[in-house]
Amino acid sequence: MRKKVIFKGTLLPWLLLLPQLLITGVFFFWPAGQAIYGSFLREDAFGLSREFVGLENFSDILADPTYLAAGWNTVVFSSAVAFSALGIALFLAVQADKAIRGTNFFKTMLIWPYAVAPAIAAVLWLFMFHPQIGLFGRMINGMGILWDYKLNGGQAMTLVVVAAAWKQVSYNFIFFMAGLQSIPRAVLEAAAIDGARPMRRFWTIIFPLLAPTSFFLLVVNIVYAFFDTFGTIHALTGGGPGQATTTLIYKVYVDGVQNLNFGSSAAQSVILMAIVILLTAVQFRFIERKVHY
What we know:
MetI-like fold, globular
């Protein structure tokens, strides 16, 4: 029987919640409030003067073609990173879940990349695909294919997508493996006895039972692609060439830190936060309906 814990009074529950509430308030609500407040202001680069301009920062941003281009780059980049990382991780998890020799070794190797920082991951891919010093970059050029991601925007976008997705595959792999191990073996064995082939067992039994895990990872991967890929882009391409890999989160950095346009940077961060909240709400509103727990 389950024992239900009943607190005498409300002091102890609030004390237990206090550390998390403080962390959330200091590192999320306070910076978010400052960003919202700063988005209505225009101040000089040294912060000596400021002026309330209302929604002018937002109107300037939405009329800026470079911001709209960064928005399109974000759509392409986040979609490619999220779905490629999820697809590859699911495939690897299904293969690692099979009864083969060295399964535990392969599982460990697939989990390790998650411990690599985004900037370090970008440097690893830079040394592999640099057109002059990279092993694979020189190999591609040696095959007669012109490879230089520092000059070709399409190649640069492909490289940052691959690097960012590689970094996230391990995270997805862990959850998919846990989901696969929770599926009763008796169900799969019964389907095999009934004559269901491996592919049919996957689409009719395994994948539907992984729906809650897949939905959770979809939300997490979208947020990751929007926010946590800054280090990868900064270390690998710096938003170039010609802003071909400049996403919304990277443009916030460029305008705020490099160009010292604090009002525009704050307004962009508010818009980005609203987009991610809206996307998450839409996913919970429409996609979760098809998830069976």
